[in-house]
Amino acid sequence: MRQIRHFINGEYSADPGGRSFEKRSPLDNRVIATVAEATRAEVDAAVRAARAALSGPWGRMTTDERCALLHKVADEITRRFDDFVAAEMADTGQPHHVMTHAFIPRGAANFRVFADTVKNVPTEAFQMATPDGAGALNYGLRLPKGVIGVISPWNAPFLLMTWKVAPALACGNTVVVKPSEESPQTAALLGEVMNAVGIPRGVYNVVQGFGPDSAGEFITTHEEIDAITFTGETRTGTAIMQAAAVGMRDVSFELGGKNAGIVFADADFDAAVDGIFRSAFMNTGQVCLGTERVYVERPIFDRFVQALKLKAEAVKYGRPEDHASNYGPLISQEHRRKVLGYYAKAVEEGATVVTGGGVPELPGELADGAWVQPTIWTGLPETAAVVREEIFGPCCHIRPFDDEAEVTALANATDYGLSTTIWTTNLARAHRVAAKVEVGITWVNSWFLRDLRTAFGGSKQSGIGREGGVHSLEFYTETRNVCIKL
Ligand code: NAD
Fold first, then answer.
1. Is 223 a catalytic residue?
2. CA 150–ligand 1 middle distance (angstroms)
């Protein structure tokens, strides 16, 4: 049985003999690993190691030296590509091609893009007039914030965790990471990479465990953590923000969504069906940017629903190693209970079930996995729970609309504001709607097309702050102004 340990001060912790928990495969519910659960003392040791590293060799490195090391991290991830793919497939059960084409390469890319960004961002300078005529010069100094707590979710574990670790390290901070209890493996494996390329001890630390009364809370309440970057549910973000208020620690939050897909009648029909299919069902619908509300202009509504139904019914269930499979299970039995609860609620609320709504019949061991059918509903009012609440499963509700003003209002009638995807060949309309939807990220005629230099984050209850490219520097550094009287 695989043992997953903490990685503190450059070493994997010895068998703790203390608290641990089982990680089960989403594919068949078998136990695949025993994971150590950090105590408060272990989190404290990780934070102390991270604090000490700030004034060690890491803190003395030049930006060039630090960024060169981060490129080596990316190279080593690429060299150990198959190990990362295997670890993440084991944790999430998602298809091989999703790992090899998206989630694991993005981990390496995150280190490269932030190493390059940090080296090329100037700080500001302002000349000012003074009464004596001699003037003064102001310039900004960018300094690392210190020890950053990184708390990440399970839905794209390696991509989302490195999206925070890479800019934090590029800016000269040190980190204490807590991956989700559902996906402990890739964060642990990254410790081997850090040691292999010579990242000084204490710079990258990982503690395993849960949220409340466990590693997550021990990090967020630790007074030596200078700032917290978190991706996960909005409700969890609220709890973390309360913890961060003590000591006035800064937070960066990437939270939940209830994203709208908008399809106008003039859209490239096949491209729109493909795009909405991917955004609703990729990663079994467990993508924060995914579409759970679809609005389709009335003249193409029936045809669109039928086309999406055909695609949803053609998914290939299977183990990730089976390259013919393109659809995985949900992350856990617990999450499946939540999603199936929403499937039942949709029926209670009067939905027309276009397809799915239940559990597929699968052979052998897979029958015990956390599988659910891709599901499409129509006919619900906007007040229905499945139209308002984030389900985080492979499902969407589709509703017809008649004009631009109506669909913009429908898209905005939510407390969330993460992303939207708009499908139209009328570019003027695309610009108009994009400017009006209250979200952090809008895609036109595409979905999940990511340039890592751009601002990423949510409006309303979908997040606080922006990360990506230079925007990450706003959170991971502190700008000090120096004013020199000439
Ligand atoms: P979650 O909030 O349940 O857990 C996320 C992490 O927080 C886990 O590591 C968990 O152990 C930890 N945690 C839980 N309670 C905590 C507490 N009180 N204190 C400290 N840590 C705590 O989220 P999840 O179920 O892992 O992930 C799914 C959610 O993440 C969805 O809502 C999804 O939309 C969101 N998400 C958002 C983005 C984005 O970029 N906006 C990206 C991916 C996922």
1. no
2. 11
2-255+462-485: CATH topology = Aldehyde Dehydrogenase; Chain A, domain 1 (3.40.605)
Cα gap 398→276, rounded to integer Å? 11
Model confidence pLDDT, tens digit, residues 95-140: 999 999 999 999 999 999 999 999 999 999 999 999 999 999 999 9
Mutation pick for ligand 1 pocket among 92, 160, 180, 207 (CB with most ligand atoms within 8 Å):
180
CATH level 2 (architecture), domain 259-451: 3-Layer(aba) Sandwich (3.40)
d(CA 187, CA 37): 14
Burial class (CB in 10 A: 0-12, 13-18, 19+), 102: middle
Q: What are phi and psi of 296, to 5 degrees?
A: -125, 135
Do residues 186 and 161 lie in contact, with contact meaning Cβ atoms separated by under 8 Å?
yes
User: What are the domain boundaries of the chain?
Assistant: 2-255+462-485, 259-451
CA dist 175 and 33 (Å) reads 25
| Per-residue pLDDT tens digits for 211-225 | 999 999 999 999 999
